[in-house]
Amino acid sequence: MNLEICNLTCTYYNKKTKEVTTALSNVDIVFPLKKITALIGKIGSGKTTLLKIIGGILPYDSGEMLYDSIDLDRVYVEDRNFSYIDQNPILYPKKTVFDNLALPLLQLKMKKEEIRETIYKISREYKIDYLLTRKPKELSTGQIQMINFVKAQLKKPELYLLDEPFSNLDLKTNLKIRKKLKDVINDTNSTCIIATHNINDVLYLADYVVVLDEGKVVAQGSVDEIFHSKDKLVYALMHAEEQNNENK
């Protein structure tokens, strides 16, 4: 079983400049299911666009997406059991954290008492129970990111689409959530595609890596294969932290 992206192309039209920009060009990827795949590449390489297309958030020009051999275009977005976390996560500003977390459970038509028990259980697990009565304006960016990560789990999705999910977290919380994510994927047999610039995330989490550059796939394979790639661009991305340390 796989998620197959076949010959996918996506362009943007800028009304002001009247220019067409190609975000993704003839992309072919086979994402293994029940595994964690890392998308890496420079800013503007197409990582976010690809995640949003898979999640049904953005349209695309041409190509095909097959999820376990089913054409995703034939599946309504609301019927896709996917959870997408944006790199700039947003909560409903007038609702408390509890009410924001309750939304996916209400969609599952869960009873009120069951919703309450579920939210308090996972909130204690992630040590955010003290935030449940607060509104988003009272939270830090890192706290909002953490709550969105918890919210994504409540839906019990088959596929997690995560766009730089740890970027606003301190190191201690980052390490904790990395481990939690890995445990969740393994325990629930779900699939995760994570776009990240942090190579430590790739090395710790990923089973498979896809490298994008200017909207094209330049490499894909196991972490070991990509880490030891001779390609100059791929090598630079995978060893950027080592090079930064050498330059200090």
Describe the structure.
With 248 residues, this protein is an alpha/beta fold. 37% of the residues lie in helices and 27% in strands. The chain is built from nine helices and ten strands. It has helices at residues 47-54, 97-107, 112-125, 141-154, 171-188, 199-205, 223-227, 232-238, 240-247; strands spanning 2-14, 19-32, 36-40, 62-67, 70-71, 82-85, 159-163, 191-195, 208-213, 216-222. The strands form two sheets. The chain has a six-stranded mixed beta sheet, sandwiched between helices. Strands 2-1-4-5 form a four-stranded antiparallel beta sheet, with helices on one face. Strand 9 (208-213) and strand 10 form a beta hairpin. Helix 2 crosses helix 3 and helix 2 packs parallel to helix 4 (141-154). It is globular. The termini are far apart. The mean pLDDT is 91.
Largest sheet: 6 strands, mixed
Strand order of the largest sheet: 6-7-8-3-9-10
Percent helix, as a range, is 25-40%
Our Rg estimate from Cα atoms comes to 19 Å
What is the first-to-last residue Cα distance? Answer: 45 Å
Task: Supply the number of helical segments.
Answer: 9
Which whole number gives the mean pLDDT? 91
Question: What is the N-to-C order of secondary-structure elements (H for helix, E for strand)?
Answer: EEEHEEEHHHEHEHEEHHH
Q: How much strand? A: 25-35%
Low-confidence stretches at least 5 residues in length (pLDDT < 50)? Answer: none
CA-based shape? globular
- List how many beta strands DSSP finds: 10
Structural class: alpha/beta
